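Q: My labmate handed me this sequence with no annotations at all. I'd like to see what the chain might look like in three dimensions before we decide whether it's worth expressing. Could you predict it?
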Amino acid sequence: MSDETKVISPIELRRYHRRVLRYTLGIVIACGLAFGIGWGLSFIFPVFLAKFLVDYPVSSRERFQQLLLAMVLTVLIGLSVSMGVTHYPVILLLLVGLLMLYAYYLFLDPRWNFFATILIIAVMLLPYLGIIHSGLAIYVGSGLIFSGALAVIGFVFLHWLLPEDKQKDEFCTEVTPMSLTRQQRIEDALKALIVVYEVVK
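A: Here is what I predict for the chain of 201 residues:
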């Protein structure tokens, strides 16, 4: 009987400790700010920050722009739909359907996965809150934007405070995800929309 032991290089071990420290410090500070100040939807701030730190251990200018767009632009799109056409159900359903189709199309690209997820949430949540009360949609939308933007700023600050180890590990090989063709993404997005749209209606 042979024992198989996985050899962890010093570089990988140092990188792991740095990420754990960054995550722990970030969540402690985020929870302290969120529950200490208590703005609208403040509890989402630590949740978003935790997701960013786990899913994106390496920070870059492109990553910062994508996350900021996901947290601001998507919610603004949802708010604009909820403010304009809530009194016209047919137009509202068409707009929501088109935006969901675009979100599912983006979802199949690993680079825009998070952006598409927040877009789906904003498009499905905010317009229907706007039907109940326009002030409720504005409250939830502004809370999402503020907490999300603060999480992105916290993500960048933590990477500046505890930067990622740039030294390459000879034992580590980077795996790039397989990307679908444009036609496959359109077909899969249409299938997803057909399944979900009945629930939305």
